[in-house]
Amino acid sequence: MGDVARRFWRLLEPIHGVVYFAPDARARFDAVGLRGFGMGYFASRSAALGPVGPEVVTAAFYVFEPSMVARALPDAWTRASPEAVLAARAELADVTLRGALGPLADGEEVAAAAEVAIGIAREVPIGGRPLAAAHRALPIPPDARPLARLWWAATVLREHRGDGHVAALLTADVDPCAALVLAAAAGAYGEAGAKLLQTNRRWSDEAWAAATARLAGRGWLDDDGTLTAAGVRGHQRIEDTTDRLAATAYASTPADDLDRLAEALRPLAARIADTNALPYPNPIGVDPRPGP
Predict the structure, then answer these.
(1) What residue segments make up the domains of the chain, in order of their start?
(2) Would you call 227 helix, strand, or coil by DSSP?
(3) What confidence score (pLDDT) does residue 142 get?
(4) How far apart are CA 76 and CA 36, in angstroms?
(5) What is the overall mean pLDDT for the chain?
(6) In this structure, are residues 56 and 42 in contact, taking their beta carbons and an 8 Å threshold?
(7) Cβ proximity of 118 and 139 under 8 Å
(8) Cβ–Cβ under 8 Å, residues 177 and 211
């Protein structure tokens, strides 16, 4: 089932992820009282948890430098309620997806994908998965809004996978900054992956160098920062564990329904890639372009 989980990560992540790259994201969150991209990001992604502080979000999001989170929270909650932020985020998702998908936004693919994905997301196991649980608890958009329903389901499933990925990193004893160094060395973020991830998550040069040294001390990195054979194996174990944990979301869904979901999602993910609504490389690490 690990292959199934990875396939749907590549197909569902583009549906969810467009909110992070929408050109009007900052303006929409500014309109409800937030200030700056960082405040909009941390408040909107954590709003399902309620007005939590930076410690909770740092723990749940895992890979961000703590002071970056603290600059956004809890100040965001003095400016806007979680409910207002969630409403702005849902509107942003709808507008952005419609712009990317064009006529497909109201097509049969979206309706078919929403039908299956909603069923999966409703039953997704939430033990030990705070972000998946919080987003699953949010109201499901009404049947008359299939695109919004699909985004709701894609969000639950991506946070379910993300929660599992954090568990995989913890089990492998890979700390937040080292997780980024390892991911960049593995090549999933393009040739400039290290710069992209360090800058996006706001780790200092000193913190990045220390994390690199920790991985080298484990024998996972060579002196030039490339993965050793042990590093390749360690990274693959983390990815395999992440896939295995994510697969629990799909385990009880009949194979025919999974095939129907994949068939419906493929043209949507391809369109999102074609319109660059989810660019690549990106800090998420998923390649939305159709595979071979």
Answers:
(1) 2-21+102-170+242-274
(2) strand
(3) 96
(4) 10
(5) 96
(6) no
(7) no
(8) yes
pLDDT at 5: 96
pLDDT, mean of residues 42-65: 98
What average pLDDT does range 169-181 have in this prediction? Answer: 98
Question: For the range 250-257, what are the long-range contacts, defined as Cβ-Cβ under 8 Å and sequence gap of 24 or more?
Answer: 250/1, 250/4, 250/5, 250/8, 250/120, 251/1, 252/123, 253/116, 253/119, 253/120, 257/116, 257/119
CB 101 within 8 A of CB 110: yes
What pLDDT score does 290 carry?
A: 72
Residue matched to tokens 């780790």:
203
Structure tokens at 273: 């890639």
Supply 274's token pair.
């074609």
The pLDDT of residue 192 is 86
Residue 25, token pair as written in the block: 């994201």
Contacts of 220 (CB under 8 A, 6+ apart): 182, 227, 228, 230, 231, 234, 235
Per-residue model confidence (pLDDT) at position 291: 65
Other CB atoms within a 10 A radius of the CB of residue 132 amount to: 26
pTM equals 0.96
Q: At 280, is the pLDDT very low, low, confident or very high (cuts 50, 70, 90)?
A: confident
- Burial grade of 48 (CB within 10 A; 0-12, 13-18, 19 or more): buried
Burial bucket for residue 76 (CB in 10 Å: 0-12, 13-18, 19+): buried
Length of the chain: 292
Q: 123 φ, ψ to 5°? A: -105, 10
Residue 71 in tokens: 């600059």
SS3 81: coil
Three-state SS string over 17-45 comes to HHHHCCCCHHHHHHHCCCCHHHHHHHHHH
Report the half-sphere exposure of 192 (CA within 13 A, side-chain side): 8
